[in-house]
Write a structure and sequence with these properties.
- The chain is an alpha+beta fold and about 400 residues long.
- About 35% of the residues lie in helices and about 25% in strands.
- Strands 4, 5, 18, 19, 20 and 21 form a 6-stranded antiparallel beta sheet that branches. It has a 5-stranded antiparallel beta sheet with strand order 13-17-14-15-16. Strands 7-6-11-12 form a 4-stranded parallel beta sheet, with helices on one face.
- The chain is globular, with a radius of gyration of 21 Å.
- The chain starts with a helix and ends with a strand.
- The relative contact order is 0.19.
- The model has no long low-confidence stretch (mean pLDDT about 95).
């Protein structure tokens, strides 16, 4: 059977059932009809690294929440988000997050933490299993979706303890964006909550509440799952100039609206936190000896200033960038190796991280064979390691890098 026929056999049923409709993106192949293997040892180590790093990020972020405003500004957290991000909702750094890892000659290395609005959820928790079933492979993510329901129940209880109302729940995203809307609807279904999907355009502030405009009525919202980055939310303005996003964050501060992921997720989202963690690691007066070992094993040297020039190849990353936007790779001598010009993040402050080469693999695609770099994603759900996923693309993984299903070796 040709690759294209295999591809249609896998993805046509998924498209028809309406859960995963973005196997093609912008007219190009996104989800591959191939499968990559992972060993039990690698899977176990990824889960271990994920949970241990989650604890380190949680410890650091919680300490920051107790500090004065200047530390938030130094980390590059938008001013409008700071007060909301100081509210401590979870013991974990976020409810649903994803660490990105590279497998290198020196072992697994974590590149960044997507703790605010991570993508790839449907791919990892649902599609991966369907492709494994087609190929008769064991799904490394089997049963992981149970953790999603448990996590939504736990955060709802936490908001209740903190005095937030939680009766009226809405899941929201851009309804025209198939990936965002599909991911949000999938999480709604998995959450077990009595909730509705409402497009972002139908959310309005009315009578000191965030409301969903439904059939001409403004229906108050108590708990909002939003696949909309906090940095963008803070800048949202209505057509009449009303600062809706800022007002929403004030509602969070006043405990009239709960967010999922919580606003505190932005503390771990900013890549400047990686630089702070590495600095604390070097100083060696904050982390335990066990935490120090984890940082040395799984994190990469990351700094606010470029200490790598003349010493080692490095990467310059916007602190709140997404999908590789405006990332730049440099040789040690300062020569630009590669850059991702697409993105809205060119004016953000950057951090500098030691560069590692992602594993080079060759996979079948619609056009033949493709040689690309392999990036691993490892989800963390309320502090617990969860599903994994793989992407294949260039040296900089962007939104058009392929999704590569993974089966047990």
């Amino acid at each position: 059977m040709t690759y294209q026929k295999v591809r249609e056999a896998i993805y046509t049923p998924l498209r028809d059932e309406g859960i995963f409709t973005w196997d093609l993106m912008y007219g190009s192949e996104y989800a591959l009809a191939a499968i990559h293997s992972i060993s039990q040892g690698d899977k176990t180590e990824l889960a271990y690294a994920t949970e241990q790093l989650g604890g380190i990020f949680a410890k650091t972020a919680t300490a920051i929440q107790r500090m004065d405003m200047p530390i938030f500004r130094e980390l590059g957290i938008p001013e409008v988000v700071i007060n909301a991000s100081r509210i401590h909702v979870l013991g974990a750094p976020t409810l649903i997050g994803r660490f990105d890892f590279a497998r290198t000659k020196r072992g697994w290395k974590m590149l960044e933490f997507n703790s605010d609005t991570p993508g790839g959820i449907v791919e990892a928790f649902y599609v991966n299993g369907q492709v494994c079933a087609y190929y008769g492979k064991e799904d490394p993510n089997r049963g992981m979706n149970i953790g999603i329901k448990r996590a939504f129940a736990e955060i709802t209880e936490r908001y209740q303890v903190l005095g937030y109302p939680t009766a009226r729940v809405v899941f929201s995203a851009l309804d025209w964006h198939s990936e965002d809307a599909g991911t949000t609807r999938y999480l709604l279904q998995q959450s077990g909550l009595n909730a509705d999907f409402v497009p972002l355009k139908d959310l309005h502030v009315y009578q000191d509440k965030l409301c969903a405009l439904c059939d001409g009525d403004f229906r108050p919202i108590d708990l909002l799952y939003r696949l909309h980055p906090l940095g963008m939310l803070g800048e949202d303005v209505d057509t009449d100039g009303f600062p809706t996003g800022e007002y929403v964050l004030r509602l969070v501060e006043r405990r009239k609206l709960g967010l999922i992921n919580p606003a505190a997720a932005i503390i771990s989202q900013t890549k400047s936190l990686q630089a702070l963690i590495w600095n604390l690691h070097v100083i060696d007066d904050f982390f335990t000896s066990e935490e120090q070992e984890i940082i040395a094993a799984y994190m990469l040297p990351t700094y606010y200033e470029n200490v790598f020039l003349g010493q080692a190849d490095y990467v310059a990353k916007p602190i709140l960038g997404r999908e590789g936007g405006n990332v730049q790779l440099y040789h040690a001598d300062g020569e630009l190796l590669e850059e991702e010009q697409e993105g809205w993040f060119s004016k953000q402050m950057v951090v500098y991280q030691q560069m590692v080469d992602l594993e080079l693999i060759t996979v079948p695609v619609a056009g033949g064979l493709y040689s690309g770099r392999l990036l691993w994603g490892s989800f963390i759900i309320n502090g617990k390691a969860s599903a994994i996923m793989a992407r294949v693309g260039g040296r900089i993984t962007n939104d058009m890098s392929y999704f590569l299903p993974v089966g047990m070796e």
